[in-house]
Amino acid sequence: QKEVEQxxxxxxxxxxxxxxxxxxxxxxxxxxxxxxxxYSRKGPELLMxxxxxxxxxxxxxxxxxxKSSKYISLFIRDSQPSDSATYLCxxxxxxGAQKLVFGQGTRLTINP
Amino acid sequence: xxxxxxxxxxxxxxxxxxxxxxxxxxxxxxxxxWYRQSLGQGPEFLIYFQGTGAADDSGLPNDxxxxxxxxxxxxxxxxxxxxxxxxxxxxxxxxxDSVEQYFGPGxxxxxx
Lengths: 112, 112
Prior knowledge:
The structure holds two protein chains of two kinds.
Chain A: E1 4-6, E2 11-14, E3 19-25, E4 32-38, E5 45-51, E6 54-58, E7 61-66, E8 71-76, E9 85-92, E10 101-102, E11 106-111
Parallel strand pairs in A: 2-11
Antiparallel strand pairs in A: 1-3, 3-8, 4-5, 4-9, 6-7, 7-8, 9-10, 9-11
Chain B: E1 5-7, E2 10-13, E3 19-24, E4 31-37, E5 44-50, E6 53-56, E7 65-68, E8 75-79, E9 88-95, E10 102-103, E11 107-111
Parallel strand pairs in B: 2-11
Antiparallel strand pairs in B: 1-3, 3-8, 4-5, 4-9, 5-6, 7-8, 9-10, 9-11
């Protein structure tokens, strides 16, 4: 079993829809939870990160962490065709500068 | 400002050959990471440098893989006796010794 599980999709939704992306994990030592966006043939781009449990909002994006369930989510409101990409969740331990453990990535397409 | 750069962007080599992949991190970033991403998968950690020293090399798959960062800036990932299974995108990331890691565009390695 992988430390971080993420449904690879693909996920296809109409423009303007609310998108929900999720990951589960097994390692209780994870304290930092990130979401990266990766366009085709590009490197991952950090969208946002959360420390421990709780919610964090940045524009149209909201990240949620539920450590009791070992479950994290990313919500995208008012989705746009430019949001079409692969979304990767990633996690690391308590100390800031540490290796990231990634999920498989969910491929998302927003249809105009 | 300038982001993380990686050269070459593409590398095709024959099985058994030696290859070097280069990473130029963001200026001033003390931490540098190498990851490997296979098709349809999330990045997998290889090695992490803090300054000139390898702080964590637990992700290197075997002794054919080696990385250096002699002056605490540019890093080179070296692969000896390449195998077809080494074909992947090799990603480099740098960080100002914090949880935020900034990725380069990657080097796509194909071993024929």
